[in-house]
Design goal:
Strand content: under 5%
Structural class: mainly alpha
Radius of gyration: 19 Å
Helix content: over 70%
Largest sheet: none
Order of helices and strands: HHHHH
Number of helices: 5
Oligomer: single chain
Length: about 140
């Protein structure tokens, strides 16, 4: 029973990443995206932010806790970026770009880094909070 619950928890942790994967795939299938920002290289910025968010949630789903595992979500997102660019090359009105893939990959690295930073800060905050509670209990 406990093993079944653990599998369900692992599956649920993938939901945010799967939503982003699906949304990205859907948007890549569109000839045009009407709500795009209009500034120089806006599409590269959007790729960077979206794939950064994807890497953040892939890091969460993969339970990344150490710097040495930093490469895993970055690699997953980079490979998905290649697949996404190939997919876009078959979509009328869209094109494939190595520069988009570079933005995807850099965003993936940033997202994985931000996740590790958040985890590190949470652990520091939690450790400080527990030690502070222990100190106040000892003082009484």
């Amino acid at each position: 029973m406990e093993q079944n619950t653990s599998f369900k928890i692992k599956l649920v942790k993938w939901i945010p990443a799967l939503i982003i994967f699906g949304t990205s795939w859907y948007l890549s299938s569109q000839e045009t995206i009407e709500q795009m920002p209009e500034f120089w290289n806006a599409d590269k910025f959007v790729h960077f932010i979206c794939f950064g968010g994807l890497a953040y949630w892939v890091s969460f789903a993969c339970n990344i806790r150490e710097k040495k595992m930093f490469w895993l979500p970055s690699a997953i997102v980079s490979v998905y970026g290649i697949i996404d660019e190939i997919h876009q090359s078959f979509t009328p009105g869209r094109d494939s770009s190595v520069f988009d893939w570079c933005s995807d990959t850099l965003g993936g690295v940033m997202g994985a880094f931000v996740f590790l930073l958040v985890i590190h800060l949470m652990w520091r905050f939690w450790a400080r909070g527990c030690n502070g509670a222990e100190r106040s209990a000892k003082a009484e």
